[in-house]
Amino acid sequence: MARPAPIIAGLTCRCPRCGEGKLFVGYLKLAPACPACGLDLKFADSGDGPAVFVIFLVAPIVMALALLVGALFNPPPFVHLILWIPTTLILSLLLLPPFKGVLIALQYRHDAHEGHQ
């Protein structure tokens, strides 16, 4: 069986071994095992990594857009609140599952376990 690329498998939230089975049974809840190949996903622990990477991606995008809108249109402060709080929340919530999937796929690819060298 050809192993899928970890980035592609992670971004599509698929199994890191076969690339077919769904990685999540809920929003961020991992499946106990892959329904397609049976890979036991107990090894997967991404910790806070996905949240950190999402923050590092979303914050500069929202800040750049806020500065651009402020420079072009000079809206009152409440307009910035109306625009950027929902944008930040939506982008963050949309990006968390794929980023968690990528970190789990990379963890599987590199056989990374706690206390394992």
Q: How is this fold's topology laid out?
A:
Elements: H1 6-11, H2 49-73, H3 77-109
Helix pairs in contact: 2-3
Overall body shape: elongated
The total beta strand count reads: 0
Radius of gyration: 18 Å
Instruction: Tell me the fraction of residues in β-strands, as a range.
Output: under 5%
- Uncertain residue ranges: none
Q: Could you give the order of the helices and strands?
A: HHH
Oligomer: single chain
Please report the number of helical segments: 3
Supply the helix-strand structural class: mainly alpha
Query: What composes the largest sheet?
Result: none
Ends: how far apart?
26 Å
The overall pLDDT average reads 94
Report on this structure.
It is a single chain. The chain has 117 residues and is mainly alpha-helical. Helix content is 55%, strand content 0%. The protein contains three helices and no strands. α2 runs antiparallel to α3. The two termini are 26 Å apart.
Name some characteristics of this structure.
elongated, 117 residues, single chain, 0% strand
